[in-house]
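Appendix B. One record, verbatim.
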Amino acid sequence: MHYRLCVRMKPMEKIIRKIQAIASEKGKCLVAIDGRCSSGKSTYGEFLAKHLNATLLHMDDFFLRPEQRTPDRYAEAGGNVDRERFIEQILSVMDKSDKIMYQPFDCSVMKLGEVQYLPKKKIVIVEGCYSMHPDMIDYYDFRMFLHVNSEKQMNRIRKRNPDKAEIFRSKWIPLEEKYFKTFRTAKYSDVFIDTSLEW
């Protein structure tokens, strides 16, 4: 199931060629893949990273730390990701080193994990909701938005995380939708892909 998204090669070939062209012209290309949960962001990210020999980063590694999880923060559109740390550890230093160094958030112990080191390749892909937050969007050279309709979204979540489906429906999805509506995220993407019929 995971890689059935990759059978629609024509649009993917166009995306690959566009990213390669940007990287060739600028010497680098930073790609964002934002969109609804269960729309296929991780799958697209893995596919593109493989075919472009790119470094892949995940916004899920930048969940809020416990001290950041306040009512005011959750009330903020797009507030439930640690974008400040993502900017500090990734985006603001991207051009200053040949390595990417950061601490992923470990949900099992609710704190930052050990420092990770990744090679900074010519193409770097960031996948995950909130990656195109207004505080970060201008860093990217190419932006993708993945959509899935609500019925298919919940079906996928129930298959993938049946024990967490209700919290997705009642908490995480509304927070995402508030972010998309407030900042009109899809409008500012270079590519919009509806994955509702893909698997």
